[in-house]
Write a structure and sequence with these properties.
With about 180 residues, this protein is mostly helical. The protein has helices spanning about 20-40, 45, 55-80, 90-95, 95-100, 105-125, 145-170, and strands at about 50, 55, 135, 140-145. About 60% of the residues lie in helices and about 5% in strands. The strands form two sheets. A two-stranded antiparallel ribbon has the order 1-2. Strands 3-4 form a two-stranded antiparallel ribbon. α1 (about 20-40) runs antiparallel to α6 and α1 runs parallel beside α7 (about 145-170). The radius of gyration is 17 Å and the shape is globular.
């Protein structure tokens, strides 16, 4: 069975509203626990189940790397005038030993900690703060913090959706 490219749909920027802000912060607050619950009880062999190119283990570690990076980029944008952020090679990072073979527990702890701090930070920001920006040289464009929040809330759900799909169709049903 073909794995869907975007199991929760493609990312689409969402205009700011107080209701959407609450929704995005809830996603960020809840996703580490949702991920922990989703991977709890998986065997070492099941953690090696592949979704397109990455195993469940690699997806968990990628989420930790990516979300920590996004949190730091936001802090840079809040403390500097349009900072230029450092891109990183997801493909190269995913091949490092800490991502390919290490237990997922430390990355789950990282996500719980960074998302807790991230939600606290987001809740402290004004609408003017959310308009602050950083420049991403790999994409060649400026990102505002509101779009970043929406993107990384989606990013969490995107990868959680991949693992759910694997659990539902590959691990539990043996299909695909």
């Amino acid at each position: 069975m073909e794995r869907p490219d975007n199991p929760v749909g493609a990312f689409s920027p969402t205009p700011y509203s107080d209701a959407v802000r609450l929704e995005m912060t809830k996603v960020l607050a809840d996703s580490p626990g949702e991920l922990r619950e989703l991977v709890s009880g998986l065997t070492e062999s099941e953690l090696e189940t592949v979704y397109k190119n990455w195993t469940i283990r690699q997806i968990v570690h990628h989420l930790a790397d990516s979300q920590v990076t996004a949190f730091i980029r936001m802090k840079l944008a809040l403390t500097e005038k349009v900072p230029i952020v450092k891109p990183y090679s997801e493909g190269a990072w995913i091949e490092l030993a800490d991502t390919k073979t290490s237990p997922v527990g430390p990355s789950l702890q990282m996500l719980e900690g960074v998302h807790s701090r991230w939600v606290c930070l987001i809740n402290s920001l004004s609408e003017v703060d959310l308009q602050r920006t950083y420049f991403h040289p790999e994409h060649g464009k400026v990102f505002d913090l509101w779009t970043t929040i929406c993107l990384y809330a989606w990013h969490s759900q995107h990868h959680i959706g991949q693992i759910k799909w694997l659990r539902d169709f590959v691990i539990e049903k043996g299909v695909g």
